[in-house]
Automatic annotation (TrEMBL):
Domain of life (superkingdom): Bacteria
UniProt key word Signal: no
Family: Belongs to the binding-protein-dependent transport system permease family.
Transmembrane listed as a keyword: yes
Pfam families (alphabetical): BPD_transp_1 (PF00528)
Entry protein name: Carbohydrate ABC transporter permease
Spans traversing the lipid bilayer: 30-58, 100-122, 134-155, 167-187, 208-233, 266-287
PROSITE patterns with a match to the protein in the record: ABC_TM1
Length: 302
């Protein structure tokens, strides 16, 4: 026992200078006025962003009388009946199914077209490809509100008013530019030797794309799908102007059922909004690493 203590005591002085040297080698944060200003601005931004969500959460537990008396005060007790009333009074389950149908079909079409287009933009560099890329960038800058009137006219002529495909087609069209750019960025980071090796082995262009590139592109396709799921699930504009039947409403549009002509029970409305946003929030919370990684893929080329 004494020999062990002697050995440890002999090693201790040698370890301390090493640890001190490692700590001294670590970079230290210098707190100047610039760093403090940036920290204060970031803290203020965090408060501005988080406060509406915090306010919605605690306001959804109020009674309607408490909400009318003071908008900013905390609830006297956790009133879970607002969530029960939101589920009972509204057809949230039906609206959620409608949103699920629109979201799944829109995302499948968008990801399929974006994957093929992103691959074509990287592999087939013809002289008109830069012009197409400029057109896509311009399309990203055009808000949907500008094209709303001619879009509704086209949908009416196609006979797709009050139809799910009347919502799906414009949703795919407006989500395609950014989705194509995400997939293009990924394919640009893939070594071209893989394509050349597949061609040398006698694989056709379609076989090269389907059997070689698509399996490699699954992470980027997954990221594109998650981004589109969040966008389509929360879309309010296209269902508002295209869908008329109450039984075809999507979840964001169905929240208008909780707004009365004369009075509105705001705590129940806030509870319904939180329930509607729970799905997209959980999807982003679980897959945020994939979303950020996919959006930045292709930024650095090896």
């Amino acid at each position: 026992m004494s020999e062990t203590m002697a050995v440890s005591a002999a090693r201790a002085p040698g370890r301390r200078p090493r640890r001190q040297a490692e700590r001294a080698a670590e970079p230290r944060t210098v707190w100047g006025w610039g760093s403090i200003t940036v920290l204060v601005l970031l803290a203020a931004h965090l408060v501005i962003v988080l406060f509406p969500f915090v306010w919605m959460i605690y306001s959804s537990f109020k009674t309607n009388r408490e909400f009318q008396a003071s908008v900013w005060s905390l609830p006297s007790a956790l009133n879970w009946s607002n969530y029960a009333q939101a589920l009972a009074d509204g057809s949230l389950a039906l609206y959620a199914v409608n949103s699920l149908v629109v979201t799944i079909v829109s995302v499948l079409i968008t990801v399929t077209i974006a994957t093929a287009a992103g691959y074509a933009f990287v592999v087939y560099r013809t002289r008109w490809m830069p012009a197409v890329e400029i057109v896509m960038l311009v399309a990203m800058a055009i808000p949907a509100y500008i094209a709303l009137v001619p879009l509704v006219a086209i949908i009416r002529q196609m006979g797709l008013l009050d139809d799910y495909f009347g919502v799906i087609l414009p949703t795919v069209a407006f989500n395609l530019p950014i989705s194509v750019l995400i997939m293009r960025g990924f394919f640009a980071s893939v070594p071209g030797d893989l394509i050349e090796a597949a061609r040398i082995d006698g694989a056709s262009e379609f076989s090269t794309f389907l059997r070689v590139m698509v399996p490699i592109a699954k992470p980027a396709m997954f990221t594109t799908a998650i981004v589109n799921v969040i966008w389509v699930w929360n879309d309010f504009l296209f269902p508002l102007v295209i869908l008329n039947s109450p039984e075809r409403k999507t979840l964001p549009l169905g929240l208008t059922d909780f707004v009365g002509d004369r009075t509105t029970n705001y705590p129940v409305l806030l509870a319904a909004i939180l329930l509607a946003a729970l799905g997209s929030f959980l999807v982003y919370l679980v897959f945020q690493r994939h979303v950020i990684g996919g959006l930045t893929s292709g930024a650095l080329k090896q």
